[in-house]
Amino acid sequence: MEYIQKYLDEIGRILQNLPQAEIARTIDILTLARTEGRRIFVMGNGGSAAMASHFACDLGKGTVREGKTRFKVISLNDNVPLLTAYANDFGYETVFAEPLASLAEPGDVAIAISSSGNSPNVLRAMDVAQKRGLTTIGITAFEGGKLKEKVDVCVIVPADSRHPDAMQHAEDGQWVVLHTIFVVIRQGME
């Protein structure tokens, strides 16, 4: 029981220190993208891939309202045949950048979810996004990694990278960030 309380106490500390200004900026960017009919591309690896798919589902379905513009949101890690074809033929670092280069237009939004902020495929995709005139958002943790330097807005979950449960703390915080963004947007549409 003692460890349960310690884990929950650490999560509470992290949640109390989430960067609310960056979360609010992200909400504003996504709301504008919806209003302007822009596409939103989301991506991540491993647990972050699960978050990207879930967030795309939340925005794509959970915000549907009669008479309201719908979100055009695409999770780049959900097309497994395309992802594995690029990985096999051109290297795993291209799996998000190449589809983004094919689909994205200036004014669209790219959201990278990476706890470390150092995943080569995510970083390459952000380079492509910037070159194509997309607004870029990072949802990361710890110190933000290299991702924080490659995005317009970076939401950094303040997990302690030295903690033995650092990755779980980071992912818990990222889930809360994504759900907060979704819930605020959904409530603003009512």
Helical content (DSSP H or I, runs of 4+): 40-55%
- Calculate the mean pLDDT score and round it: 96
Number of helical elements: 7
Question: What is the straight-line distance between the termini?
Answer: 41 Å
CATH superfamily: Glucose-6-phosphate isomerase like protein, domain 1
The CATH architecture can be named as 3-Layer(aba) Sandwich
> Helix-strand pattern, N to C?
HHEHEHHEHEEH
Structural class: alpha/beta
In CATH's first tier, which class applies? Answer: Alpha Beta
Extended strand count: 5
Q: Biggest β-sheet: count, sense, barrel? A: 5 strands, parallel
Low-confidence stretches: none
Strand residue percentage: 5-15%
* 3D shape: globular
The radius of gyration over CA amounts to 16 Å
Give the strand line-up of the largest sheet. Answer: 2-1-3-4-5
Would you give the CATH topology? Answer: Rossmann fold
Number of domains: 1
Describe this structure as you would to a colleague.
- This protein is an alpha/beta fold and 190 residues long.
- The chain has one domain: Rossmann fold.
- It is 53% helix and 14% strand.
- It is built from 7 helices and 5 strands, in the order ααβαβααβαββα.
- Strands 2-1-3-4-5 form a 5-stranded parallel β-sheet, sandwiched between helices.
- α1 crosses α7 and α2 crosses α7.
- The longest helix is centred in the C-terminal third of the chain and has 23 residues.
- The protein is globular.
- The N and C termini lie far apart (41 Å).
